[in-house]
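Entry 14. Structure prediction run on the chain below.
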Amino acid sequence: VQVVESGGGLVQSGGSLRLSCIASGFTFSAFSMSWFRQAPGQEREWLSDISSGSDVTNYRDSVKGRFTISRDNSRNTVYLQMNSLKPEDTAVYYCRRTMATHDVWGQGTQVTVSS
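Output returned:
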């Protein structure tokens, strides 16, 4: 199992970014996928997940209404569209199969939001 996150960068407060996560090594279309983030000095936190068929999505309260998760099973890719970004969204963002606690984390993608 391997995931590669990309799309991070430096953005001003109020701006937008779209993160991508390309997965390999498993049948992508059969698994729910999740996004997480870890800010400096803090625990990694769950942000959102999406079912295998995209019919069910869930969000952490702090990102609800600002972030949108989606996936393209033909491309083995899950996305996180992030709008109205705030400085407190600054973190390294990761994706992983939902509930797959033994999967190795990818390298993540850094998101930095300036005020």
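The chain has a mean pLDDT of 97.
Filed with the rest of this week's runs.
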